[in-house]
Amino acid sequence: MALNLDALVETLRKPTMVGVVSDLVLFSGTLCVAVFVGLLVGWAWRPRWAAVLVGGDEEKPDGNGSRLRPSSSGASGGAGSVMGLPIFGSLKAQLPSGSTSLIPYESSENVMGGLASSSTEGGESVAVTTEDLEYLSRLVEVTDGGPAWQQMMDKSLPNMGYQAWRRDHPVGPPQYRSRTVFEDASPGTVRDFFWDDEFRMKGKWDDMLIYHRTLMECTKTGTMMVHWVRKFPFFCSNREYIIGRRIWDSGTAYYCVTKGVPCHSVPRRNKPRRVDLYYSSWCIRAVESRRGDGQLTACEVLLFHYEDMGIPWEIAKLGVRQGMWGCVKKIEPGLRAYQIARRAGDPLSRCAFMAHINTKVCVDYLRLLVNRNDSTAIEELQKGKSLGRSMPKLLIVGGAVVLACTLDRGLLTKALIFGIARRFLKPGR
């Protein structure tokens, strides 16, 4: 530090302005490089005792601030595949909590209330409930009450348009929102495409997914628990995820919820590193083509994503910004290849088959979910205003009582004081 100060003082003693500026640039450049190298070394290398200090192997909070506790029994393993997600990935955010078992079949009925629960063979629980559907609906309608979204990208291809937004949560990782519109694509095909992890790896359009396995599934609701590993850059270890996922069908849109869930049957390891805080969900629906012909031949995908990858958030934001469009550009060719394979009669993979098992939910129920908490908030606000209006009245009456008791001048004085207080109270009635 002393050498740095001496160098700075010596720089300021230069007789010419050009010399001062050049030395200052050189000095600040070397300092920035040193800071950046220190950040990388501190991020890539962390001793085990440091991980213990920050609670790396303890229970992690889920998105709602509550604790994610592993289930007491193991999951049933099976061949299959794990969920695939649009890749540009990363609170206590308003992520719903709750742990229910894989739920009974309700795909032929409109769900108008809470979902019943029943245990599965392995007894493992998956927290994918109507609370998650409500949370996703609020994100779609921009009524979740979070910070404002800041646009960060607006690009397009001949048959695809893409927009992306980001917001910084005060106590969590950066959150991302994107809107992708695919021309000449149906919502059902796009739903299967993002759910089909076998094709995701086979088609090479998502080269970060290197392993996937289905841990548990419910053939009545389509709810799944999956285990997958994503490849990260060479200077950090790969990341593994335990994800619960489920799809709701409103008749006009698919609400696909995927989130990190606890799983005791898959032990933690040093490598790959487990990501506990994970949320990536989207709404898929038909929209009008940008050709302007009035036909609903395009498909809109609204994606909401955040995760705590164990990387400093500022570095993660820089990486996402630099690599986002490169990853997004691969989705459109992958979708077209998937459409060709489907038209050619290729059989559905297990993941794509599970994507066809949805829970039916009516639009009115979704509207009720979104507006329910708003009405509650309005009622609480009105109560607060009513209480605020009554407080001055209480203060006036209390002050009059104290003053009357203090000024012991007979009944006339007390009557005068109470009369003045009553006169002040009349306008507020």
Automatic annotation (TrEMBL):
Keywords, alphabetical: Membrane, Transmembrane, Transmembrane helix
Lipid biosynthesis in keyword set: no
Single GO MF descriptor: lipid binding
Domain START: 147-340
Entry keyword Transcription: no
Chain ranges passing through the membrane: 24-45
Location of region: Disordered: 56-77
Cellular component, GO annotation: cytoplasm
Protein name: StAR-related lipid transfer protein 7, mitochondrial
Source organism of the structure: Anthurium amnicola
